[in-house]
Amino acid sequence: MREERSKRISVKGLKLQVDSGTNSGKLVKEVIGLNKTIDGKSIVKGLDLIIQRSDRIGLLGPNGCGKSTLLKLLLEQLTPDSGQIKTGTKLKVSYFDQVRDQLDQNRSVKDYIAEGRDFITINGKDLHVVSYLKNFLFDPDQSRSAIRTLSGGEQNRLLLAKLFTLPTNLLVLDEPTNDLDIETLELLEELLIEYKGTVLLVSHDRTFMDNVVSSILVFEGEGHVQEYVGGYADWVTRNKAELANNTARTSSKPEESEHEANKRIKVAAQKRIRDLDKVTVQIEKTEQQLESLHTEMAKATFYELSNDKQTVCYSQADALEARLIELMDQWEQLEAS
Ligand SMILES: Nc1ncnc2c1ncn2[C@@H]1O[C@H](COP(=O)(O)OP(=O)(O)OP(=O)(O)O)[C@@H](O)[C@H]1O
Ligand SMILES: [Mg+2]
For residues 170 and 92, is the Cβ–Cβ distance under 8 A? Predict the structure, then answer.
């Protein structure tokens, strides 16, 4: 399916640009010890996370595990039970909600996109709304029609077209791939790869996810959410149970074209740089945490704590040291790749 999609897009030849707006600050979100329980079920437990400008993070987990809930927590639409979320500066957020707003069915397609004007402005340049909509595979007749004449999948495509008219530097996409046809899926993939801002993405389309994200947050059950640098395929490789399945799929791939190979190499190089950057920040953060814990443990007052409390500190230090070794390994592997 992936190969089929790639061929179509290379035939189409995209010229569409994405409006990435102005840059946000380097830090997008810092999450510390986040906890959320819904109806007695732990959705997120003790989550620490740093999201930096240009990160592309995919959320992975079964239905009902809490992906949409975590996005809403990050967007501060939901309040956590405890923990902190620090939000960076100059953020312009666009949120593609899983439960989409009802479109005004009587409005014309082009009026909805351009708010009644004939032109929209992308990266400071005016573009005729009908030309813009052509990029999203709407012909001029459809552009002038009422939204009610569009199918469900076409209405989803229209919502995406609208999303990319807004200057934004943080895109939060909750299952944008549902009901999309193959061409739109490819178009969205290309747009997201070109996009310079930060992306948080939920999608059950694993190939799409893998092509777009550079790290994943995996819901591993009972509120445990673990970040893995690399995409879905990297995560699968680490999960040996799924390895055989993955290899079978890889070996059945037909040969890729030069365009596809170039794209793959470009995306891989960008990913590697982002991954290295991300691991470096995580190493620094873990080192700081370990250092402040060591400082506390070196104080005379530490020995006045109960045995239980001292044991907790020793375990925390062990866990941080293990995490540091794991991160150093990741860094070395990335550096050598
Ligand atoms: N408004 C709500 N009221 C009560 N329970 C809710 C509410 N929203 C979510 N939940 C519950 O919280 C849990 C997590 O839901 P959430 O929608 O975040 O999952 P998800 O991972 O996004 O699932 P999906 O893949 O199906 O979209 C589920 O058990 C769900 O039933
Ligand atoms: Mg959801």
Answer: yes
